[in-house]
Amino acid sequence: MKVRLLLFALYKDLAGLEEVEIDVPVGATGSNVVEVLRARGGGLARLPERPVIAVNREYAALDTELFDGDEVALLPPVAGG
Amino acid sequence: MKVRLLLFALYKDLAGLEEVEIDVPVGATGSNVVEVLRARGGGLARLPERPVIAVNREYAALDTELFDGDEVALLPPVAGG
Amino acid sequence: MHNALTRDPIDVAALLPLVGDPEDGAVLLFVGVVRNHNDGQSVNGMRYDAYVEMAERVLGDICREAAVRLGTDRLAVVHRIGELGVGDASVAVAVSSPHRAEAYDASRYIIEEIKTRLPVWKQEHYEEGGGRWLEGHVPQTGELA
Amino acid sequence: MHNALTRDPIDVAALLPLVGDPEDGAVLLFVGVVRNHNDGQSVNGMRYDAYVEMAERVLGDICREAAVRLGTDRLAVVHRIGELGVGDASVAVAVSSPHRAEAYDASRYIIEEIKTRLPVWKQEHYEEGGGRWLEGHVPQTGELA
């Protein structure tokens, strides 16, 4: 299945990309997606192992199970205001 | 000696006057002034025995000694804002 | 630092340019407004009386004390007196400071001290006619000891 | 209730007419402003990035939570994103309520929650060149448990 991955701020700069679609097996979790991403090496390897994530625009635990078409965002510590 | 007395809000309404000059003996205190005023009877008798006072525009204790020309104000509980 | 009593309507937005500084990250504006009700009664106006000369002095004291909490002297306070209608601003307090905690603290300090120390009195006018002087606070100051 | 993210300059005074009611005795406006310094460095600008679609949702959540504290739905919040200069408003929060305690509480709640939950990031630009993403907060939400 496919999930759409979004990167922001520092993570976007580290990775050198802000959006990517990746293929993951059915039943994959947020953690699995982060692993897949980090395994690609280069700047992506510099992403943290356990970032805060959002699934479909809501904060979510890393062990959240994903579904085809989900939007997963990797969020650096936030600093609004 | 003479002191200038000011009344505000509810006290002004009770007394039916807002300003009066009164003669008091040298050494008189705030309390003495209140007594003199209350003793005049009528609406003035309805003033409290121990109001908050200000002497020369500063909050002052009732036993503050007064001097000729002082401005003494009787202040109902305040409600700014 | 700006503080004043006025008989004219308060232009609250006009207080904002009186505070602020390139060092400041927080600006806070409080506005007290005449409400249409109090203690279950419909109110259609409020009369504010003041011992003006003393109130100006006390307001200055409050502002200087608040400036210590604020860490800046960037504060502006205007208190209106006279006859006010529902929705009219009776008091406006603007402050600015590098960080927000001090701005909230100083703003709240000013309004609480105004309520308990400023020699101002208010008389509500009721929809059904008549009115009454609102119960107030007995100032607790060191000067009273 | 009004809440929005915007790339345009915030007209802070324009938030005041969005709150207020004949029942309300207190109006409070907080403005967050870009400062000219941080951690001892001179700052000449700030870039705000956001996960816009999520930030709009979270800002709505924060406002609904604040409305419970406020006791009214009379609140207006605007957060700016993009490139800001020193003195530019990055966020403005207006609330009104019958009594002031609820206004201060809700106003503070909104700004603290914005700082810790809103998916927004800021990069300071320094006078001497260069910049860096500011260290932020790890959102602590029930959803993360």
The portion of residues assigned to helices of chain A is 10-25%
Biggest β-sheet of chain A, characterized? 5 strands, mixed
The total of helices of chain A stands at 2
Span of the ends, CA to CA of chain C:
30 Å
Mean pLDDT of chain A: 96
- Please give the radius of gyration of chain C in angstroms: 16 Å
Question: Could you tell me the strand content of chain A as a percent range?
Answer: 25-35%
Order of helices and strands of chain C: EEEEHEEEHEE
Choose one word for the global shape of chain C. Answer: elongated
Largest sheet of chain C: 5 strands, antiparallel
Oligomer: heterotetramer
Q: Taking Cα atoms only, what radius of gyration of chain A do you get, to the nearest Å? A: 12 Å
Largest interface, with counts of residues having CB < 8 Å to the other chain, equals: C-D, 30 and 30 residues
List how many beta strands of chain A DSSP finds: 5
Unreliable stretches of chain C (pLDDT < 50, length at least 5) are: none
Provide the β-strand percentage band of chain C: 35-45%
Structural class of chain A: alpha+beta
The first-to-last residue Cα distance of chain A is 37 Å
What overall form of chain A do the CA principal axes indicate?
Answer: globular
What strand order characterises the main sheet of chain A?
2-1-5-3-4
Helix content class of chain C: 25-40%
Structure keywords:
heterotetramer; A: 81 residues; alpha+beta; globular; C: 145 residues; five-stranded antiparallel β-sheet; four-stranded mixed β-sheet; 2 helices; 26% helix
What's this model, at a glance?
The complex is a heterotetramer, with 2 copies of chain A (81 residues) and 2 copies of chain C (145 residues). Chain A is of the alpha+beta class.
Structural overview:
The complex is a heterotetramer, with two copies of chain A (about 80 residues) and two copies of chain C (about 140 residues). Chain A has about 80 residues and is an alpha+beta fold. Chain A contains two helices and five strands. Chain A has a five-stranded mixed sheet with strand order 2-1-5-3-4. Chain C is an alpha+beta fold. Chain C has helices at about 50-70, 100-115; strands spanning about 1-5, 25-35, 35-40, 40-50, 75-80, 80-85, 90-95, 120-125, 130-135. In chain C, the strands form two sheets. In chain C, strands 3, 4, 6, 8 and 9 form a five-stranded antiparallel sheet that branches. In chain C, helix 1 (about 50-70) runs antiparallel to helix 2 (about 100-115). The longest helix of chain C is centred in the middle third of the chain and has 19 residues, at about 50-70. The two termini of chain C are about 30 Å apart. Classes of the chains: A alpha+beta (about 80), C alpha+beta (about 140). Chains in contact: A-D, B-C, C-D.
